[in-house]
Design goal:
CATH superfamily of the largest domain: DD-peptidase/beta-lactamase superfamily
Number of domains: 2
Number of helices: 10
CATH class of the largest domain: Alpha Beta
Shape: globular
C-alpha cells in the first residue's frame, strides 16, 4: 500500500514543481509508521543546490501549532487555564477590549483582534514591545465583534500569545518550544533563531548551508537565505526554520505519538480538536483548522510569506500526515487538502475494510 500512496502523492506534486517554476519543494508523507520523502527542484536556482529532506525552510505560520502545543500542555499540567484573561500574565494590558480576551480565545483565533500587521496595506514600520502593547490597549473592535464570538485569523494575536507564554513561564519562547516540544519529539533541525542586524537568522555556518533561498511566485529572489520577516522588533518574533524530515517527526507525533510522554501526546491531540465552528465545512482548533470533506476530516495548517510556502496536513482517523515546504510564495498547497489527503484516506479505508 505504501507504493500506492507514494504514487498518489508524486502524481499530484510533480506538476507543481517543474523546472520552469522557481525554487523547489520538499515533501514528506507519514503513514502506517512509515515516512516517505519527495524532493523537487533547487534550494537555490543560482548554485543549483538540489532540495533534500534536510534543507531548512522558513516556516511562516507553521510555527503556530508549536505555540498552540505549549498552551495545551500548560493547561493539561495545570500551569495555565484556557479561560485565564490575558491580563493575568500581562498586567499592562489595560485596554477596554484586550483585557477581556482569554488565552483560549487567542490560541483559537476567536479573540476578535485584527491589527494593522494582519492585513494589507502592510505597515512600513516595525513595532517595539511597548508600541505593540500600546496598539493593543488602544484597539477597538468593529461593530458586532466580541471575544469568543467569531473566527478572525490574527498573526498579531500569536505574537501576543508568545508574550503571554514567556511571562507565564519566565522563559524565552524559543527555549520553551525547544525544551517542551522539539526535544521530546526528537526534532533536532528546527529552531527559532535570533534576528541579525541585516534581518537574517543568526545561525552557524553549517546550518546556514542548509537554508534555502526564497523566491517570489514569479521567480524573483527575495532576501538572502535565512531572511526573517516580521513587523515586530523584539526577541522571539522572527521566523522558525525546519526541514521536511523534522516536520515528518512532528506530524507523526500529531497522528500517532505512541512513544511520547502522555501529557505531550494529549496536548498534540488537544490542539487539533475543533474549538470554534466556522460553518458546515470549516472549523478552528488551536492553530489547526478542521475541514470536513465527503468521507474524511482533514486537520491542517497552511503558512507562507512572499518567499516561502508551507503546509502541514493530518487525517487523524487514518494516522496519515503530510508536509509540504516550498521556497517560493503562493505554492498551491490546497492540492494536499482537497486531493492528496482524501485520496490517501480512501486508500487506507479500502485496505482496512
Amino acid at each position: 500500500m505504501i507504493a500506492q500512496m507514494r504514487d498518489i502523492v508524486a502524481a499530484e506534486l510533480a506538476p507543481t514543481a517543474t523546472p520552469d517554476q522557481p525554487g523547489g519543494l520538499a515533501a514528506a508523507l507519514y503513514a502506517g509508521r512509515h515516512v516517505e520523502f519527495f524532493n523537487y527542484g533547487f534550494a537555490d536556482d543560482g548554485t543549483r543546490r538540489p532540495v533534500t529532506p534536510d534543507m531548512l525552510f522558513n516556516l511562516g505560520s507553521l510555527r503556530k501549532p508549536f505555540e498552540a502545543t505549549l498552551v495545551a500542555l500548560g493547561s493539561l499540567r495545570g500551569e495555565l487555564r484556557l479561560d485565564d484573561r490575558l491580563q493575568k500574565y500581562l498586567p499592562e494590558l489595560d485596554g477596554d477590549y484586550v483585557r477581556r480576551i482569554t488565552v483560549g480565545e487567542l490560541v483559537s483565533h476567536t479573540s476578535g483582534l485584527l491589527l494593522p500587521t494582519d492585513h494589507p496595506p502592510w505597515p512600513n514600520e516595525q513595532f517595539s514591545r511597548a508600541q505593540f502593547i500600546a496598539m493593543l490597549n488602544a484597539w477597538q473592535p468593529p461593530a458586532g465583534v466580541a471575544p469568543g464570538k467569531q473566527r478572525i485569523y490574527s498573526h498579531a494575536g500569536y505574537v501576543l500569545l508568545q508574550l503571554v507564554l514567556e511571562n507565564c513561564y519566565r522563559t524565552p519562547i524559543a527555549t520553551l518550544i525547544e525544551q517542551r516540544v522539539l526535544g521530546p519529539i526528537g526534532m533536532t533541525a528546527t529552531s527559532l533563531p535570533e534576528r541579525g542586524e541585516d534581518n537574517r537568522a543568526v545561525m552557524d555556518a553549517a546550518w546556514m548551508q542548509r537554508v534555502v533561498q526564497g523566491y517570489s511566485d514569479q521567480g524573483t529572489a527575495i532576501g538572502p537565505p535565512g531572511n526573517q520577516q516580521s513587523y515586530f522588533d523584539f526577541p522571539g518574533t522572527g521566523q522558525m526554520f525546519s526541514s521536511a524530515r523534522d516536520l515528518a517527526a512532528f506530524v507523526a507525533a500529531c497522528v500517532d505519538g505512541r512513544s511520547l510522554d502522555p501529557h505531550l501526546r494529549e496536548a498534540l491531540r488537544m490542539t487539533q480538536r475543533e474549538a470554534f465552528r466556522v460553518d458546515e465545512k470549516f472549523g478552528q482548533g488551536m492553530a489547526w483548522e478542521t475541514v470536513r470533506l465527503p468521507g474524511v476530516t482533514v486537520v491542517d495548517k497552511p503558512g507562507g510569506l512572499n518567499n516561502t510556502s508551507g503546509y502541514l496536513g493530518l487525517v487523524p482517523a487514518r494516522r496519515i500526515g503530510i508536509v509540504l515546504l516550498a521556497n517560493r510564495g503562493e505554492y498551491p498547497h490546497e492540492i494536499a487538502r482537497y486531493r492528496i489527503l482524501p485520496a490517501l484516506a480512501r486508500l487506507v479505508a479500502s485496505h482496512a475494510g
